[in-house]
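tool_call: predict_structure(chain=1)
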Amino acid sequence: MLSLAACGRKAISSCARLGIETHEAFTPETVIEEGKPRNTYRLTRFACFLITLHADEGKPQVSAAKVYFATIAEAIIQSGIQLNDLERLELRSDLTEGENTMESVASRAGIENFAFFKSAGFRGMYNMNLSDLRIRKGVSAKAKLYDLMGKTELAANWFRVTQTAARITSHNIKGQQALENAAHQVGASVRNEMIRNSKIKPENLPLEEDLKLVRGRIANAKKGMGILDATRKKELPPSA
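tool_result:
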C-alpha cells in the first residue's frame, strides 16, 4: 500500500512520462509551520487527479476524491482515465529508453544492420518476424505496435531489450551475426518464460486501446482541469 508521499512521487513520475513539465502541476513552495520553513508543493487539480489514481481506493478520502474526479473528468473528457492507462504509458516510455540503450550497446559492438538485429529479437520472442506479427495481431503497417500492447507485453519487451543489451555487454559479443544470435536467444528465453508462467504465447496477448488516444484524452483532462483552476482563482477574493 503506497503512502501519500509515495503516491505523490509516483504522480510526479507519471507527469514527467506524459511529457508534462512537472512544475506545471507540482509547484515547489516553502511554507512556515511552527516557525520553521518546510518544503512542499502547491498542487493543481490535475496533480491531485494523478495522485488519486495511484492511491488506495480503500481509504474513504481517496474514494471520495475519485468520485469527485470521475464527475469532473466525465464532464471534461467524456470517458474515464484509469491507472492502467498511466502504467501503460510509463512502460511504453521505459521500453523506448530500453531500445535506445540496446541500440547504443549494439552500435559499439559493431552492428551493421539494425533492422536484422531487431527482427532477430522479435523472431525469438514471437516465433515470427515483425511483419507476420502485425498480420497475426491485425495491426496495419502504419500503426505503432508497441502503442497497442498491454502492460504484460510491454513489460516483456522491455525485459527483452534490456537483457539483450546486458548479454551483449557481459559476454563481450561483437559482429552482426553474433549480435543477431544474442537478440534471438534472449527473445526466445523471454518467450519460454512467459509461456511457462501464463501458458499464453506472447503473440496471442490481446491488444488494447492505442496509447495515442490515451495521451490525447489525458491532455484534454489536464487542459480542462486547468480551466477549472483558472476559473477558481478568479472567483477567490484577493486575500484567499
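agent: The mean pLDDT is 83. Proceeding to next step.
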